[in-house]
Amino acid sequence: MNNVFPASDLIEGKLSALTPPARLAVMGDPVAHSQSPGFQNAALVAAGLNAQYIKLHVRPEEFPSALRALPEAGFLGANVTIPHKAAALANVDQADDYACRSGAVNTVVVDGERLHGFNTDGPGLLRAVREQFSVDLRDLRVMLLGAGGGAGRAIAVQCAMENCERLVLVNRTVEKAQSLVEELAPSFRSDRLLGPVDRLQAIPHEEKFLREQLAFTDLVINATSLGMKRSDPAIIPASLLTPNLMVYDTVYASGASRLLEDAANAGARTANGLSMLLHQGALSFEIWFNQPAPLEVMRAALNPVPTVS
Ligand code: NAP
β-strands 219-222, 141-145: how paired? Predict the structure, then answer.
């Protein structure tokens, strides 16, 4: 149940012989590492649905035709991962407001010949934060590192939609964070937080700026692509981490990332990206089947990727 199929198998109608029938897929390039088939297939079995979720290796040039081949091949929908989330938004017939604002679709629903796009990354993070820290994004002053990336943008838009207390967008290329600030500014135009700092601002990913802003932060989220390898540079210098912080790393390696290790040593509360992965998948299941996902079955089927040294 864990094979990778080429996009040509979908486009040429060669998947019809699979048992249970292939009805859902994750489309990506690369895709072999994807955790989604493991927990989505466990959910399908638990829900008594005669369907299989497969991995489809889809290169960028194949993506539009592969997406359009889903209805004819009898698929109910698909997940879309790196590097196709923006192309998915451009190629679906309609997308919900959050997917449009995030500039990305990670969940596609087949409705006759039409394709509907959704994005469950931000709502998945929202649920993960609630589960891990027993608190809602809307009550938090958030510092988001990696705000210029795809996951960072999705999380920033979710924070804006939740009207969180405060949002500091940190990015190595600060211009990207700055343009996101301009886009999100209307959501933060109120005097909800009375204090010495702006409710929404962009800063470069540099120690001096991090130090200043961490004093006005409750939750730090790492959405940079750093952290999978133990040899990656520190995302935040350990000396800046304090016990009052909550630190969420979207990376979902099995061992603690360097950031989470430093944060735990400083006495902060920590969580890694497995819970976001789980909840974005559970939300996709709920969108496809309009029924609650068997969350505990999916959680038990999660199989974290080992940390690379
Ligand atoms: P992406 O689009 O490539 O964005 C990468 C981000 O990291 C950019 O903001 C980039 O800054 C920053 N960055 C890269 N190298 C850096 C460095 N050396 N120092 C500082 N910043 C650096 O990647 P993505 O698709 O958003 O993914 C980001 C992370 O989110 C990945 O670790 C992924 O595993 C995780 N993720 C997790 C889940 C989940 O369910 N848990 C879901 C989605 C993504 P610049 O703009 O300056 O290049």
Answer: parallel
CA-146 nearest atom, ligand 1: 9
Is pTM beyond 0.90? Reply is yes
C-alpha of residue 257 to centroid of ligand 1, in Å: 14
Residue 149 beta carbon below 6 angstroms from any ligand 1 atom: yes
Measure the CA–CA gap between 104 and 85, rounded to whole angstroms. Answer: 5
Computed on alpha carbons and rounded to an integer, the radius of gyration of the chain in Å comes to 20
Tens-digit pLDDT profile for residues 194-238: 577 899 999 999 999 999 999 999 999 999 999 877 788 899 999
Residue 251 near ligand 1, beta carbon < 6 Å: yes
- The CATH number of 122-274 is 3.40.50.720
Alpha helices in the chain (DSSP H): 7-11, 36-46, 63-69, 85-91, 97-102, 121-133, 150-162, 174-184, 207-214, 258-265, 274-289, 295-300
40 alpha carbon, distance to own chain's centre? 16
> Does 122-274 match 4-119 at the fold level?
yes
Distance (angstroms) between ligand 1 centre and the Cα of 52 equals 30
- CATH homologous superfamily of 4-119 equals Leucine Dehydrogenase, chain A, domain 1 (3.40.50.10860)
Distance 2 CA to ligand 1 centre (A): 26
Give me the active site residues, please.
Answer: 85
User: Could you report the per-residue pLDDT of 111-146, keeping only the tens digit for each?
Assistant: 999 999 999 999 999 999 999 999 999 999 999 999
C-alpha–C-alpha distance, residues 284 and 288, integer Å = 6
- Spatial separation of the C-alpha atoms in residues 27 and 60, rounded to whole Å: 10
The packing angle between helices 150-162 and 121-133, to 10°, is 70
**Residue ranges per domain, the chain?**
4-119, 122-274
